[in-house]
Design a protein that fits this description.
By secondary structure, the chain is α/β, with parallel strands linked by helices. It is built from 7 helices and 5 strands, in the order βαβααββαβααα. Strands 3-2-1-4-5 form a 5-stranded parallel β-sheet, with helices on both faces. It is globular and about 45 Å long.
């Protein structure tokens, strides 16, 4: 995988988990492609995100212009054909192994060669998915940005109420220290000025 900045995030699945990931990614400044089985489901997912953003405006946690900007960064798409410019794809759809394998085959073929493809599976071992991981989960977190990873964990924990999404203290400590991963040269790992991981 070539070293490239992540600017476009693709989320496969516009259900509760996928919506949470898409909202956090867009709030963090990434352009988001939100896909589901149909364009209508993807559009419904964005609509639900916009309602959540409106609630945050009502609570004073976002301004109306911030909410509009976040919503503007989320584009519902018809499917894999719209993932040609995606740098990071996150599958958050079915927990059915055959379904996941079909999704991975379809979307992997549509992604550019530099793209990272991740799964948000909670019940299927990623080894069963037959993925060729160029990096482990902590290095991937450093690449995405630990502040973004923490924000995603916080939204998932708050929205789903499941303690398995509670961010670990180590992650919170790294973010509080300003060690956000590759972009700051230090996260779970240390990186040189060119972004190469130090031994």
């Amino acid at each position: 995988m070539s070293e490239r900045a992540i600017t476009v995030v693709g989320v496969i699945g516009a259900g509760q988990m996928g919506r949470g990931i898409a909202q956090v990614a867009a709030t963090s400044g990434y352009e988001v492609r939100l896909a589901d089985a149909t364009i209508e489901l993807a559009q419904a997912g964005k609509s639900t995100i916009e309602k959540q953003l409106a609630r945050l405006v009502e609570k004073g946690k976002l301004t109306a212009s911030e909410s509009e900007a976040v919503g503007g960064r989320i584009a519902p798409v018809a499917g894999a054909g719209d993932f040609g410019d995606v740098d990071l794809a996150i599958e958050a759809a079915t927990e059915n192994l055959e379904g996941k394998l079909r999704l991975f085959a379809t979307f992997d073929a549509a992604l550019p060669p530099h793209a990272i493809f991740a799964s948000n599976t909670s019940s299927i071992s990623v080894t069963k998915l037959g993925l060729n991981h160029p990096m482990g989960p902590l290095e991937l977190a450093d690449l995405i940005g630990l502040d973004t990873v923490l924000a995603i964990a916080d939204v998932l924990h708050r929205e789903l109420g499941d303690s398995k999404y509670r961010a670990p203290a180590r992650l919170r400590n790294l973010v509080a220290a300003g060690w956000l991963g590759k972009k700051t040269g230090h996260g779970f790992y240390r990186y040189d000025a060119s972004g190469a991981k130090l031994a």
